[in-house]
Fold:
Amino acid sequence: MKNCLFCKISNGDIPCVKLYEDDDILVFLDISQTTKGHTLVIPKEHFENIFDLTPETITNIYKHIPKVARAIMKAFNAKGMNIINNNGETAGQTVFHYHVHLIPRYNEDDGLRVIYTNHMDKYSKEDLEFIANEIKNNI
Ligand code: AMP
Ligand code: ZN
Structure:
């Protein structure tokens, strides 16, 4: 797609530091290096985010992720890894071509902080049933 940064990277118009590619996917270093080894996996074909991905494309992407994740862990003796995919501006997506972040973790102050707020005191069992039904009705 015209004017898409990751389409330009995947067709070679903009350089990247490449780790792996095949006909369907490209794996390259994230320029921000949130932690050492921060890597992106993208489909070569343009999809904006998870909401318009096909099952075939998500399969192509995720079938490569374990081996790339293991390689990053081994290369720098990482202690863990966050695998993150932001969908939509509200969720922090800034490049609107689907991508998965592989962010190796070394310690709590290594550059990434993921905080899940616990609101379980605000939801009754009935509230959870209602939420589940609203979602199920849309699957
Ligand atoms: P997100 O905020 O989830 O959309 O992630 C977009 C990511 O793309 C950010 O982590 C950026 O650092 C990364 N990024 C932006 N431009 C480039 C580039 N030219 N090469 C590699 N990574 C990039
Ligand atoms: Zn694109």
Observations:
- The pocket of zinc ion (ligand 2) is lined by residues 1, 4, 6-7, 46, 97 (CB under 6 Å).
- The two ends are 29 Å apart (CA to CA).
- DSSP finds four helices and five strands in the chain.
